[in-house]
Amino acid sequence: MQREYVSYEDLQLLIDVLKESAKDELDYVYRGYFTQNITNDLLILTEQDLVRNSEIGLIKKRVYMIMVEGLQNITKHQSKAEPIEKPAFFHIRKRYNKYFITTSNLINDNEIDALVNHVEIINKLDPEQLRVYYKDILSYGSISVKGGAGLGLIEMVRKSGNKLFYDFRPISKNISHFYLQTHTPVLETDNPNLYEDCKLSSVIDFHQLCRKIDIVLIINTIFTQDNMLMLLDLIKEQMQEQAGIGKKVYSVLVEMVQNIIHHAAENLEEMVGKHGIFFVCEKDNEYILCSANYLSSTKVDKLRNKLERINTMSATELEEYYNSKLLDFEVENPKETGLGFVDIRMKTDTNLEYIFVSINSEISLFLMQASVMKLKN
Amino acid sequence: MEPLLLKKTEDTPEIFFNPENDNFFISERSLPENAIEFYQPIFNWLNDYFVSPNTTTIFDFKLEYYNTSTAKQLAKLLMLLEKHSVNHKITVRWHYDKEDADMKDSGARYAKLININFEFIEY
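Above: the input entities. Below: the structure tokens describing the complete assembly.
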């Protein structure tokens, strides 16, 4: 059966956005319905990064608070009304010491004016005026039928020390995406080019790309066993309705991510830790899991040969190869079982799909896609 | 002999080996970063146990999920049992979820490769 892999052109577009440009780079994307557990997992994932990067208390607190408010906001306003579109979108991006947090949910076009009005008022107020406005709303009541009263947006401004950026994109006759972004710490204006791909307009383009290739999740960070376990939790929650194929997806995910943890380049220039990218696309009949990690270009040929060899094996040869590796205790190396790729090949029941992209003369990016078919009902 | 009891964690299985009650159970999930390190103390314990084992020993494997690095350590564990089954009565019971064909296949593979009494239990 033909698998719907992400095309080379689309992968290139994604890599252009996600490939390591800053040492401290970070992206988390989630597209879908936000449950309490998913919200918590996203908070914990980000918190692990904040702790690892030893962010100072103030930044840590601000990022966390903005995320809480932003996530609560979309949880409240996410709508399953539009069957062709995922209810909501969350994205946190870190580049060069700044965090950009963007959310999106669907909105009825007749609600846009009131919302714009509200955001414009908030954006004009100074901190003291904001405090008063906040208290006024608390005392005199709500401006929204969802009971949100718009307090969340005020909190985002107060906690980030920055104004809100917003925009809309229509998706159907009466419904639009409402995008909301804030960042912390406040940008200095001396080097705006550095943050070109973090601006709201760039993130909106990125969201449109995610929609086009049906991305539901992206993790672009330093991988550790800890964040892999959170990722497993997140996937489990996300795939609740697909219980039957859950384990296949986990097992492919674990092999892909542990491969990053064990083999990603970490001592190359500009890199700290086992940096990698992992994302999931949800197609009509399958999940596409994709992992990417950097490696020294000198290792490309050897890896390519290994993958090619696995791809050319018949079912019997695969079985024999697997068994021989399984019982091979000659060299016991915790990082190298020799089973990872062959296991993915056998579990997905199709060839390994991969490419190498040259980043510079010394470093390449190794990308692999695996497709897990959904169960037929 | 002292039982071997390891509580499950997020990425390591529950180990419950208690000769007094004829209980030898491995359950939950196993996906540690370093499986060699995790399983070594278990091999050590088993080698001590087989100095004077119970008349019959039944090992229950009821794993929900394990990674490839664990797969190799399980092979090693089963081979250790195979070695001792020459002189002692040992049975392996491989439990699998009826919806999890991969887990059933993995058990069947071990049963084929390793010469030891294997039983399959669906749940």
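Note for the figure: The longest helix of chain A spans residues 57-77.
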